[in-house]
UniProtKB/TrEMBL annotation:
Residue spans crossing the bilayer: 139-156, 168-186, 193-209, 221-244, 256-279, 285-303
Main subcellular localisation: membrane
Protein name: Post-GPI attachment to proteins factor 3
Subcellular location as annotated: Endomembrane system; Golgi apparatus membrane
Top-level lineage group: Eukaryota
Record PANTHER family: PER1-RELATED, POST-GPI ATTACHMENT TO PROTEINS FACTOR 3
Similarity comment text for this entry: Belongs to the PGAP3 family.
GO biological process: GPI anchor biosynthetic process
Record keywords: Golgi apparatus, GPI-anchor biosynthesis, Membrane, Signal, Transmembrane, Transmembrane helix
Known function: Involved in the lipid remodeling steps of GPI-anchor maturation.
Gene Ontology CC terms: endoplasmic reticulum membrane; Golgi membrane
Signal peptide segment: 1-21
Bilayer disposition of the protein: Multi-pass membrane protein
Amino acid sequence: MKEIVTAITVVFFFILKSVLASTGDRSQMFYSCLQDCLAQNCSGSSQDSQSSLILQALQWTCSDECKYFCMWPTVNWFVEAEIGVQQFYGKWPFVRIWGIQEPAATLFSILNLVGHVVMIKRFRKEVRPSAPFYRMTHYFCFICCHAWLWSTIFHIRDVRFTEIMDYLGAFSMVLFSVYHFLSRVLAFESRSFQYSLFFGIAIGFYFVYHSYTTFFVKMDYGYNMLINIAFGAVNILGWSIWCFKFYKRRPYVKQCAAFVALVAFTTLFEVLDFPPLFWVLDAHALWHLSTAPLAILWYKFLIDDCHHMEGQKLDLEKLA
């Protein structure tokens, strides 16, 4: 477990470094090209009318177009000078397809969304509505689908609003996973409902407060990444301990253990930060690709766990 926490901490520093430092947009060549482009193309009233309808719909402004087209000669200069590909405004250079800013990450975010939709349908077929955690699983699915929807939108077009919604969507998944874990641990305890309600209200209020400060006070990248890692580590550690406690008595728990281990492992893709292959596929996109099949494993565990809890519930009712 120490190795998992260490890996997540390393991810934090790599991501924070990429957000705060961008050599490409600070280069003199890019700056000169951008100033010339802005002066020639973005000074008249019809500056955005030359863009296609899809670019206008995705809010690609004249200045954005200049940044995009000045990026590529700068990239070529860096490569020819044997400096290597550099980031621009915290991002690697990507080829834009139909106005989509990061095509691969967009596609893989959709795959994650589809995975949850497909598996919740399977969950409904195999688990009765009266089973414990039936509603909880649906809440989980809704939050995940909402998060992956905003991930898709963000990778289609990175603006302040979509960026914040992507961050908050990811954070909502992490927080709800912690709440899910706490509720599962306390299931069938004498005051499980009261404890679950308390943790739900506390976590909900914190999420609302964090969302408010992110939108209206400051988008603090470092703090946002830190709390995601902190709650993520609590979630991974908690489920790992729970799995270690029950995996011998409940064979299906091994699915949860495998899921937790794979989540920690796939996060390491964020450390393997490299320029996008074919200007489309980078480490972040591969991370999204690697998480897509994990939904299948997690829902299989939830189905088996609901069946187990349903049996526990029947046993308690017989004893009552």
